[in-house]
Amino acid sequence: MTDDIYTMGKELDLKAEQEKTLATPRLPANLTLKIMFLTFDLLYGKGRSLPKVLVLEILARYPYWAWENGAYKLLSLWHCATGPVDQQKIKDALRHIEMGREAQDNEQWHMLLWADLCRQQQIKLSWFKHWLLPRHMTFVYFYLTRIMYWIKPVWSFRMNAAFESHAEHEYMLFAQEHPEFDSMAVDSIWFEYYPRQKSLGDLIRRVGLDERDHMNRSLAEAARLEGGGNS
Ligand SMILES: [Fe+2]
Ligand SMILES: [Fe+2]
Question: How far is the CA of 120 from the centre of ligand 2 (A)?
Answer without folding.
Answer: 23
